[in-house]
Amino acid sequence: MATAAQETIGRDQVIWAFGPDLEPVLEVEPGAVVRLETNDCFTGQITTEDDLVTGIDFERINSATGPIAVTGAEPGDSLVVELLEVNPIEWGVATIIPGYGQLHEQVKSPVTKIFQVRDGMIEMDERIRFPIRPMVGVVGVATESETLTNALPGQHGGNLDNHMHGPGARMYFPVRKPGGMFAVGDMHASMGDGEICGTGVEISGEVVARFDLVKGKQGNWPVTELAESWVVHATAFEFMDAMQLACEEAARMLVDEWDMTMEDAFIFLSVACDVGIAQACKPGPGFECIARVVIPKIEAIPGPFKTV
User: Fold this and answer.
1) At 239, phi and psi to the nearest 5?
2) Neighbour count for residue 279 (Cβ, 10 Å)
3) CA-CA 20 to 30 A from 191: which of 93, 121, 279, 303?
4) pTM for this entry
5) What's the whole-number mean pLDDT along residues 162-186?
């Protein structure tokens, strides 16, 4: 049964970058549920396997539907976005992009592949079928000062490709500007860790999200809460740098929110938590890596913030 939404934003109301001067297309109260129609990352420019990435307009990449302002969101707060539904359409596309990804020197490029999405499964061809794992790639809020294209991740979110960002995920974004100014796009029917060829199964669809606030608490980077864990992100051009930042942020939150010593946080991260990679389609001109630290929910540490 579809979740009832109080408002709907169409896929024609989009932004192409996150910056400090975003104007909302909708303002809602905490607790509101909104349906957002999203474009695929290519904004409909690729519909057949004859359409190649070398022939598209790269100024029309990764549109994000919104932005939405949440009443009462102020700098220093966390804007909470709970993904109630992530519903892709019946077909999607993946591509090989010249110069992108770990295997780019070993393959023909460019290549486009069309996937069928039906009955909870993705059909790559007559032999290869695998379960759907819908998620959203571009999720973010207004930045403090710099304007960043939707192709880039950062402390505001942005192109924060992580396969964990599907139905049930609760995402906490650090509010830098009043209202927060949330926008979402770049849906995938499935995306593997690393996204090594530069795309998942890129697809349009609808996202249903519930909005809330945590007053006076925020991370330096977006944090995601799942049923059994919470996840800290960080990004940098090289993975080892991104991992360093993610580990430092996870340790800081354990110390500041849950009264650990830095020594205990360091050990706990090593013995109980998982450091991983969300995206790293290297090489790729200017493309960031996204690292994450997955922290299990235990009685002493039930979530990212004490107040939640």
Assistant:
1) -60, -40
2) 30
3) 303
4) 0.95
5) 98
